[in-house]
Amino acid sequence: MTSTAQLPKDLRDFYEDPAVPVASGTPRSLRQARMLAAALGPAAPEARTILDIGCGDGTAAATAAPLLPGHHIVGVDWSQDALKRARTHLTYAIRGELSGEGLPFGTGAADAVLFSEVIEHLVDPDAALDEIRRVLRPGGHLMLSTPNLAAWYNRALLLAGVQPVFSEVSLRAIHGRPGREVVGHLRLYTARALREFVTAAGFEVVRLEGAPFHGVPRPLRPLDRLACARPSLASILLLHARRT
């Protein structure tokens, strides 16, 4: 997961832990890849450059690669441990950060950016989108996914006085909410907030879809899939935007 140069050492160490989940799951990775393939359209004479920023162990980019043939997919992460694992899946995996010195790419160098399950971990998401906008060419595509604070079950949990799923108050343990994994979420978005935030950063929102969450208990999964018809209620938000 891509972080920022200002993070405290203990938070950096948290993300260096191989036990911390770094992939969003194969179905979601495939869905994002299909959205990007449709956005890119027919193959161009020259291969396009796609950056997977916050690539983690590289499995998401490797899953997407067969749906994006002929393009250069470059994994980017600040974690040396993650990059070591990513290089077993990807031809290109480069160290880079979204703040400080920024990403090691020129202005307008990328045709598309995959930004999956990263923004919720950032101290400074404004600087992150500024840097992503810099490296994207005009009209370049941003494929962003993040958990939905206003997911259908979170609305019910809040009414019951329970901490929403995806939100966290500690890096050491779960307190006051369902679930077992601590994943280090710092920011959470509703569909409306995500649209406004991305638009204010200089992007045009093309499409916003909902996706299910693999952690939903099995008996509730049909309802979770049904909620995807309304992104504002879905577990996961999948956003396609273009640099203006």
Describe this structure in words.
With 244 residues, the protein is α/β, with parallel strands linked by helices. It has a single domain (9-243), classed as Rossmann fold (3-Layer(aba) Sandwich). 30% of the residues lie in helices and 21% in strands. It contains eight helices and seven strands; from the N terminus they run ααβαβαββαβααβαβ. The protein has a seven-stranded mixed sheet with strand order 3-2-1-4-5-7-6, sandwiched between helices.
End-to-end Cα distance = 26 Å
CATH superfamily: Vaccinia Virus protein VP39
> Which strand order do you get reading across the main beta sheet?
3-2-1-4-5-7-6
**Major pleated sheet:** 7 strands, mixed
Overall SS class: alpha/beta
State which percent range the strand residues make up: 15-25%
Helical percentage:
25-40%
Q: Structurally, how many domains make up the residues? A: 1
Radius of gyration: 17 Å
CATH class equals Alpha Beta
